[in-house]
Design goal:
Blueprint: E1 3-6, H1 27-50, E2 55-57, H2 75-78, H3 80-92, E3 96-98, H4 112-131, E4 140-143, H5 151-163, H6 167-170, E5 173-176, H7 184-194, E6 198-201, H8 202-207, H9 216-224, E7 235-238, H10 256-264, E8 272-275, H11 281-290, H12 297-314, H13 316-325, H14 334-345, H15 351-362, H16 371-385, H17 391-404, H18 408-411
Parallel strand pairs: 1-2, 1-8, 2-3, 4-5, 5-6, 6-7, 7-8
């Protein structure tokens, strides 16, 4: 079983994706952006391997306008060296990747123009996964689409379009229940009819249920029957409801108690779990560490090195409790660790705590900073204390200094995430 996240990383330098407006999409600009994004993808892959994250969804924006006539590059040939290199790392790291075309990729639309663009997007996704040298267990996830006033006809239209797909797409395509139109039973019906694997999404089922008397395990077991050996390990999507937003909105972070209840209810045959959550890799690492069979406190200590100044800013009490918790090297208090991290995240940082954390960060520079830098920093700190400057301005200053003085320890800190 693998646990992963989607598309972007939080708090990891040199992993950002870039794009541009259509009017600026010159061949030179697209080449520049593609090179940047492929470098970022390689950095994400490196990060994932280092953190034992073996499930990852690649952003559809990796190749800007990759499925559009606006991009006239044969990018799979232009960047084959970079793609091969990343693909080798994916395979060597035992990683499984996927693509998930967006909401405008609607295969069952009655509009032929919409279908044409959907086919182009699916072809692009398959081409990218093929260019990385991945096998068919690396999937393209798709929703069934719209209802258009007649669900049976819309499902039949999906089946008609599916039969005409390229084999390169068919061998990777899986379908997922959604939160408005097609519940899990609809998708299972299509999956069985067309021999397409089904991805079960727990939050979508909560919002748009097929049968409220059936639990997650029932539907996961039903979906498992649609996965063949060549499709790889069954894959599901897992997310939690943001309590302050509309139904179906993903939470900012994964509540570890709720996740562990779900995980333990899966039994022995556990599927790959793609987390759909706002804090991306942070929650993935959390869930991986809390379910790890090999328990090594050094992994928690590494995570603490990323969190410590963020927690210090939010809650000095939780900061001290975590330090005490990790002193016993013979233990592996992963759940207790993340309970304290979560408790700190729920606190509103006081101005004094923000100043205290900023001064701790400043301690890395006090012997190397110039007098000009020192004067500027403390001037900003005084302005913040008088409520005349936001904390983000101070953090930007400290970040630039961390880059200038090559403080990699600080550059990996979640303190800078806002």
């Amino acid at each position: 079983m693998s646990i992963g996240y989607a598309c972007l990383t939080i708090g990891v330098p040199h992993t950002g994706m870039k794009g541009c407006l259509l009017r600026n999409a010159t061949p030179e600009k697209l080449s520049e952006l593609t090179q940047h994004n492929l470098n970022s993808l390689e950095n994400i892959i490196d990060y994932n391997i280092q953190n034992e994250i073996r499930l990852f969804r690649i952003s559809s924006d990796l190749i800007p306008f990759g499925s559009s006539p606006a991009n006239k590059h044969q990018w799979w040939e232009m960047f084959d060296t970079q793609l091969n290199k990343s693909g080798e790392k994916i395979r060597a790291g035992g990683m499984r990747v996927s693509m998930h075309p967006g909401q405008y990729t609607v295969l069952n639309s009655p509009d032929s123009g919409v279908v044409k663009r959907a086919l182009e997007e699916l072809h692009y996704s398959a081409c990218l996964l093929d260019s990385l040298g991945t096998d068919p267990s690396n999937k393209i996830i798709l929703h069934v689409g719209g209802v258009y006033g007649n669900k049976p006809r819309a499902m039949a239209r999906f089946a008609e379009q599916y039969k005409d797909l390229d084999e390169a797409v068919k061998r990777r395509l899986v379908i997922e229940n959604d939160d408005t139109s097609y519940h899990i039973n609809d998708v299972l019906e299509l999956g069985a009819k067309l021999t397409i694997p089904v991805v079960y999404d727990n939050l979508h089922n909560l919002v748009n249920p097929s049968n409220t008397s059936k639990n997650d395990l029932y539907w996961i077991s039903a979906a498992a029957k649609t996965w063949r050996p060549e499709d790889g390990v069954q894959k599901i999507h897992y997310s939690q409801q943001d309590k302050f937003k509309k139904a179906g909105s993903h939470s900012e972070s994964i509540s570890i108690n709720e996740f562990m209840d779900f995980y333990q209810g899966l039994g022995k045959q556990k599927p790959d779990i793609m987390l759909e959550v706002k804090d991306k890799n942070l929650s993935a690492v959390k869930c991986i560490l809390c379910t790890a069979e090999k328990k090594n406190i050094k992994a928690l200590e590494l995570e603490w090195s990323h969190y410590k100044y963020r927690v210090l800013e939010q809650s000095p009490q939780d900061y001290n409790e975590i330090r005490a918790l990790l002193k016993n090297k013979a233990t592996y208090p992963a759940l207790a660790f993340y309970h304290l991290i979560q408790n700190a995240a729920e606190q509103e940082p006081s101005p004094n705590n923000r100043i205290n954390a900023a001064l701790h960060i400043w301690g890395y520079f006090k012997h190397v900073a110039s007098e000009k830098e020192k004067t500027a920093f403390f001037k900003k700190l005084q302005a913040f204390e008088k409520d005349k400057l936001p904390i983000t301005s101070i953090k930007r200053t400290l970040w630039r200094m961390a880059e200038k003085y090559q403080q990699d320890y600080l550059l990996a800190s979640y303190y800078f995430i806002e």
